[in-house]
Amino acid sequence: MQQADHEIEDRLFRNVMGSFATGVTVITTEVAEEVHGMTANAFMSISLNPKLVAISIGENAKMLQHIKDAKQFAINILSSDQEIVSKQFSGQLNLKSEMTFESYKGLPVLEGSLAIVTCVLHSEFVAGDHTIFIGHVTGVQLEEKAPLLYSQGKYRELKELEG
């Protein structure tokens, strides 16, 4: 199986994976009274009973150790008007003004998000060059907003199809 990996060019693989439209999240946590955040689209629901979700964090991301230390995290599912927030936490922007956070279930969360999911760390698994963190959900919030989407290297908005 590993030999087949080398036959697939990295850029093509990234482009294929990037063609899958996803929502955009910012993962947040707090360690030693310092808030940390990172834009991510590798997020999914795992189980309804118990309520579990998963996030995938690259081995070179600073957030990896922050989640291991905090043993809890929040997933802020971004709304369509939060593109700047996504860019700030992905390192595409360096805004001079500080982001403001609210607190929910003892975790820093972003105001204006479409949804919030707070978790305590359930388990973690190393898979290739990423760690998959499984979170046991401790709280959820939902607003009536449109989601921010990402596909093929661009931010997108959801549009209803007629028919």
From TrEMBL:
The keyword Coiled coil does not apply. Residues 17-157 form the Flavin reductase like domain. Pfam families: Flavin_Reduct (PF01613). Keywords: Oxidoreductase. SMART domains: Flavin_Reduct. PANTHER family: FLAVIN REDUCTASE (PTHR30466), FMN REDUCTASE (NADH) RUTF (PTHR30466:SF1). This is Flavin reductase family protein.
